[in-house]
Amino acid sequence: MNGSPLTLVVCLGSISLILSASAPVVSIPTPNYIARSITVKVLSQDFLGSGILLRRRGATYTVLTNAHVLQAGDPPYRVQAPDGRIYRANLPQRLNFGKNDLAVLQFKSAGSIYAIASPGAFPASGDEVFAAGYPAVEERGKKQSLAFTTGKVSLVLAKPLEGGYQLGYTNNIKNGMSGGPLLNVRGQVVGINGMQAYPLWDQPSVFADGSKADERLHQMIIRLSWAVPITKVIQMMPKAENTTVTTVFNQAD
Asked: DSSP letters of the chain?
């Protein structure tokens, strides 16, 4: 052998693919890897819930979460990034999501660059999805690690429930995972986790317009976890917030 790179020719019908052993291997980030890169912890005096690194403008990052996550604690809020660093976060006063269970925080990071989420299209019933977030930990001293669960979209409502919830899925989510991402198979964020299946109190399922779901639909609703579609967030964010950013995936711990 003369030491030249090995070349493999693969014929598919009339198409020939030449694969060189010296060619670089391109690694495509998995949804799990992406979730670990874009999911943060939202803190006050204590842990409140999860959030999503949504946008970056210069050194300023915008974190998306649920309104009820912030309501569980008092300012000042803090954000713990995927690399463990903690930043003081502010509430942008100009952003208003109405009665939707959505909120954003902003923080500045002069030294570290973090990945940001890539929004996906509105999913369809039957689509495989992945839910991520940090479950609340009650045992002292136990490390709080990211949870990542698999499932599928089971019910897409024609009109949203109170809080903007419209995507019902089979993934298990726990307390603390509220505000975390719901991703598709491409690792794109399609929703924001916010409601667990089988609530402690069996209250009627009420839509955003004030009407109530009938009993058959209600029983379907309470068996699923629920997310607010990311498309609603994109529609309501100010246009001035849009920016083109090269996504950098940091190595997960």
From this structure: ---PPPEEEEEETTEEEEEETTSPPPPPPPHHHHHHHHEEEEESSSEEEEEEEEEEETTEEEEEE-HHHHHTS-SSEEEE-TTS-EEEEB--TT---TTSS-EEEEEE-SS-------B-PPP-TT-EEEEEE-----STT-----EEEEEEEEEE-SS-BGGG--EEE-----TT-TT-EEE-TTS-EEEEEEE-SS-SS----BBTTS-B--HHHHHHHTTSEEEEEHHHHHHHS-GGG--------PPP-
How many domains does the chain fold into?
Answer: 2
**For 67-101, what is each residue's pLDDT tens digit?**
999 999 999 999 999 999 999 999 987 778 999 99
CATH of the domain at 166: 2.40.10.10
- The verdict on 134 and 220 lying in the same domain is yes
Q: Which pLDDT tens digit goes with each residue over 134-160?
A: 999 755 666 779 999 999 999 999 999
Residue 97: which domain range? 31-117
Looking at the structure, tell me whether residues 86 and 169 fall in a common domain: no
Indicate whether 226 belongs to any domain. yes
Instruction: Classify residue 3: in a domain, yes or no.
Output: no
Its pTM surpasses 0.85: no
Regarding whether 133 and 60 lie in a shared domain, the answer is no
User: Within this chain, do residues 158 and 74 fall inside the same structural domain, yes or no?
Assistant: no
